[in-house]
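INTERNAL TRANSFER SHEET
From: sequence group
To: structure group
Subject: Lipid droplet-associated hydrolase

Please process the attached sequence and return the structure record in the designated field. Keep the field labels unchanged so the import script can parse them.
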Amino acid sequence: MPSPNPATLFKSPVRAIWNVQGENVPTLWWPAKSQPSSSADGSNPDPPHTVLFMLPGMMKTADCNPGLIDYYIAFLQTVHDTCEGKIDIFGASHLGHTAGSHVADPSRLYSLEEQVENKIAIVDRLREIYPADTKFILAGHSMGAWLALRVLKARPNHGIVRLFELFPTIHRIADTPNGRNMRYLFKPVSRSIVGGALSTLRFILSAPPVLQSFVGLVTGVDSDMAKVTSQDLLRSSVVKNCLFLAEQEMEAIKDMDKELIEEHASKLVFYYGKTDEWSPIENYYEMQELFPKVKSYLCEQGMVHAFVIGHGEAMGLLVGGWINEL
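Return from structure group:
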């Protein structure tokens, strides 16, 4: 008897720590429901697998561009439900953005290029696991949109059929309203001060329920998000990695890769917010002008840059609908 498919048993992702090129990466997986077997004569072959790989954003400020894949559970669960479980969904946290026994060196700071190489390696691993004709979709949020473009550039022949670029920060981050206002927060001295303050806060509010309640009260997020924030994000090593990565983003993500976007225009979908201070509305109009062949949308639902906090289900319905149209 074949082993039961987790997707048919419960509506929650499978958690695992993947070792990718020597780095332990927390992952979430929503398996596709079992598909009908092909006929013996091959006249009714199985349809190709479709795999969505989620590349998170990155926490820079209180409006939270989270690099923890757990923030995306409501969003990705909605995508899976909207697609009626016909696709596999896989997501991974950024290196250094989680704490726990899987972290070999909590003091290590991971560079932007190391994050890029890690995501490419994960896609390579997925390519090995699934059949050769598998279709891959990349969904990138915030700086994850820039990462998704880098993955596509490195692996153009890996069966990547679509990129969903959600509230994308793919160029001139330092020149955005938030970039100009927050850049000093990312400097080494500021990172040390913030890290020390968090260690003190965790000591004072040492009981997990107390810290979770405090986070919920201060931020106004729901209990699930408050739990993720208090248990996983509010740790000195994690926040230092977040701020270190943000500093590198300010320096590295400047020029749009126009040649890449033009070459893969038919695969790209960009989604912008009207009040986004990390990816201003001007970016939407620029994308429309420079790349008329690219599908670019402006949010009409009032979603914010950190859509996973309060708008995960709404975005999940939207992305799930796009996938169903493929």
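Handover comment: Residues 173-252 form one domain. The chain has eleven helices and eight strands.
Transfer complete.
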